[in-house]
Amino acid sequence: MQKKFTQLIKDNKLNHAHIFYGDVDGALKFAQGLCGYLENGNWQAQPKSDFRFVECTQKSIGVDESRLLSHFLSLTPSVSQKRSAVVFGAHSLTAQAQNALLKIAEEPPKNALLILILSDPNALLPTLRSRFQLHFFNPHSIVAVEAVEDIKKVAKQILTQTGKVRSETIKDFIKNELPWESLIKELITQLGENKEKNYTALKELLHRWELMNQFSTNRRLQLEAALESVK
């Protein structure tokens, strides 16, 4: 997604209104990186000058806060390509606050970017939601470097261990709920390094992965069976 947004910015085609939903923590991290890139040309930089962050600290976010955001976004950026505002916990926006933001969505200032973050976009008024571009953030789509290294380590253990030790490794992985798709992809990568030797195991794993994508029931049992099949 980072590559996609970078290209939109370079092509001057970035929309002014976005809803990030699903994994709110991952969405917030991405939103801050996006605003940092607009200001500093660096996804790792923190936005400062032309950035406003609103988080629900009480029961709701009221119309006064929305009006302040509207005014902020109407001003000309001093450093960044855009004036950016992120509302974290947008489900807490009152109906009046949402209607106040609707004007920004319908008649956006020239250099404004508004991002609403919440777990379920259906919590917003349909009139507001329809004016925004929606982006789903999968909880496992943004994997920390530590998790990536863990997955590589687990994949290697599954391919080298045997018997009860191997079964315990698989059960621990499933219990810790690490991203299973990443593990299967890593197993395929490692098996693919010697396709002739691992042809049977690779074929079986690909077959079981296809079944898992077709049938979502008993996912834990399917995953355990798929991992146990790799020998």
Automatic annotation (TrEMBL):
<dbReference type="InterPro" id="IPR027417">
    <property type="entry name" value="P-loop_NTPase"/>
</dbReference>
<protein>
    <recommendedName>
        <fullName>DNA polymerase III subunit delta</fullName>
    </recommendedName>
</protein>
<dbReference type="GO" id="GO:0006261">
    <property type="term" value="P:DNA-templated DNA replication"/>
</dbReference>
<dbReference type="InterPro" id="IPR050238">
    <property type="entry name" value="DNA_Rep/Repair_Clamp_Loader"/>
</dbReference>
<dbReference type="Pfam" id="PF13177">
    <property type="entry name" value="DNA_pol3_delta2"/>
</dbReference>
